Amino acid sequence: MRISTFWYTLRQGAKNIWKNKMFSLASIATMAACIFLFGIFYSVVVNFQSVVREVESGVAVTVFFVDGATQEQMDAVGEQIGKRVEVSEKVFVSAEAAWDNFQKIYFKGAEDMAEGFAEDNPLANSAHYEVYMNDISMQESLVTYIQSLDGVKEVKSSDLAAHTLTDFNRLIGYVSAGIILILLCVAVFLISNTVTIGIAVRREEIAIMKLIGSTDYFVRAPFIVEGILIGLIGSALPLLVLYQMYRKIIVYVGEKFLWLSGMLEFLPVNKVFSTLVPVGLILGVGIGFLGSRLTIRKHLKV
Q1: Cα–Cα nearest to 51, from 275, 273, 262
Q2: Which of 20, 100, 210, 229 has a Cα at 20 to 30 A from 27?
Q3: How far apart are CA 63 and CA 146, in angstroms?
Q4: Ordered structural domains, the chain, with CATH
Q5: Which segments within 5-98 are labelled E, that is strand?
Q6: What is the pLDDT of residues 191-220, one digit of tens each?
Q7: Which residues contact 240 (CB under 8 A, 6 or more apart)?
Q8: How far is Cα 296 from Cα 61, in angstroms, rounded to an integer?
Q9: CA-to-CA distance for 77 and 98, rounded, in angstroms?
């Protein structure tokens, strides 16, 4: 494409938006509303997912050994566990460490009672591994593998927690996909209507352009640009508003609701918007392109 043709196409696309101001503003407003809702939903979801991942990181599979297992056998089991892709971290807890932890919890305030066990550790056979996972949904396969290892007596896992967290993650995924699909359909429909009006208004001009030898691309390009510009403007504006809103909200919550800050830690604004901004802009431009492209194929016969 020549530079002059590019600038002509860009100007004509902008003129189309100006000529159909009311429809263009309606499309931009709808696009902005869609991206704004998408941004809010995305911000909420990524923060919830962060909380879920934090909870998942605290769920561990506990591996106990057969009575009389040597340290070499325990180390061998630990080495095999550490090779699994499901495992993010494994922590070895000796019998002595297990007894110390038990005392801190159950003999708190009555430490003298625990001194009678100084020479006889009641948890002598309780050495174990605490195994943490990359993804809680992998727990079942990991437990099955560990149970097959020599020297392993018992594997304790929280099936209820694993199933609950897995189902919650799946639910978030389904809801996200459904809402995004609805927003996309609404935005494409409105941009399509705007471009259709533009085609109707310029139908005679388009006919004259074809008579003097204009190519199909030259006729269609301004309408594609129109859709892309509407998508770009309609996505950039709400992203700017959302950025300021999110930044102020996390500061406000941190200052006014200290008890909530202790339970819920918001993701930093840069971490959220480093993904949200490019995704939002791509969505806006993509929706604008798709809406105008579909409309041209349907209504513009050149």
Answers
A1: 262
A2: 210
A3: 8
A4: 3-55+164-299 (no CATH), 60-157 (3.30.70.3040)
A5: 60-65, 87-93
A6: 677 667 666 666 666 666 666 666 666 667
A7: none
A8: 58
A9: 19
